[in-house]
Amino acid sequence: MAENPMLKFVSTPRAMPDKRGAEDRKDDFHEIYREFAADRAAEQAARCSQCGVPYCQTHCPLHNNIPDWLRLTAEGRLQEAYEISQATNTFPEICGRICPQDRLCEGNCVIEQSGHGTVTIGAVEKYITDTAFENGWVPAIAPRTERPESVGIIGAGPGGLAAADALRRAGVQVTVYDRYDRAGGLLSYGIPGFKLEKEIVERRNIQLEEGGVTFRLNCEVGRDITFAEIREAHDAVIVATGVYKSRELDTPGADADGVVKAIDYLTVSSKKYFGDDVPEFDDGSLNADGKRVVVIGGGDTAMDCVRTAIRQGATSVKCLYRRDRANMPGSQREVQNAEEEGVEFVWLTLPGGFEAEGLRDPEVGQIGPEGQGSGIRPGPVSGVRVQKMKLGEPDATGRQTPEVIEGADYVEKADLVIKALGFEPEELPTLWEQPELEVTRWGTIKADFRTHETALPGVYAVGDIVRGASLVVWAIRDGREAADAIVERLAAESAAQAGVAAE
Question: Which of 97, 148, 203, 224 is the most buried (most CB within 10 A)?
Answer without folding.
Answer: 97
